């Protein structure tokens, strides 16, 4: 796959677009770590890496990030919304991922909180890691675009991995980067304009409509080895998953979800 051209991306997304700055680096540890360590980064700064040597995923997992097959990018934002609302940004980014997968012609949905399932296999094609530092939040997104490298491990709960290419979408990473960053800028603007409120931004409705977890029997693996099993009934206005556990509604803000039907 061709290397990403920083000038072309900058022209479309910075000079004529919504971002303040954009850089493409050949290799780095983690684009999230780099932006988090940059106190001078402006609101709406994008960093893309061709390769990451210490790509990180949710709950301290590794995000395998070899050159050529994937898109690895982070966006630093300094939104003036209440700190408690920042967690919802990863769901907002999930909506942008669904729009991007559809843009390249794939069926797509989200496994709560923010795994993109795409194509006929509905396996995991992309993930999101949002991290907060001071008044900034860094939203990192990894997308499997090309041929899947052999060493990609299954995700949480044994969720298999796939890629846009494996699902039949032969797009290059530049097209995916443009579509994703444009979609993300749109949804982030709506979310910020609504003061970080998912419901009034309209994004909660779009998230719910695209959430494959709702209506499923699930096991939620909570931080600290606890687990809950029940029926996923709602994503609430804070972005939490509401699970009916033996008739009691439990709102879960963080955890790994296993769709039990998918295991059957
Ligand atoms: O599904 C997950 O666990 C989240 C994966 C997030 C990976 C991206 S790749 C770009 C950015 N830099 C990182 O180190 N991680 C995120």
From TrEMBL:
- Gene3D superfamilies attached to this UniProt entry: 2.30.30.100, Bira Bifunctional Protein, Domain 2
**Record-listed E.C. numbers:** 6.3.4.15
Enzyme class (EC, first level): ligase
Cited InterPro entries:
aa-tRNA-synth_II/BPL/LPL (IPR045864), Biotin_CoA_COase_ligase (IPR004408), BPL_C (IPR003142), BPL_LPL_catalytic (IPR004143)
What terms describe the molecular function in GO for this protein? Answer: biotin--[biotin carboxyl-carrier protein] ligase activity
- Which UniProt keyword terms apply here? Biotin, Ligase
BPL/LPL catalytic domain sequence ranges: 3-192
Task: Name the chain's protein.
Answer: biotin--[biotin carboxyl-carrier protein] ligase
Source species, please?
Answer: Actinokineospora guangxiensis
**Taxon lineage:** Bacteria, Bacillati, Actinomycetota, Actinomycetes, Pseudonocardiales
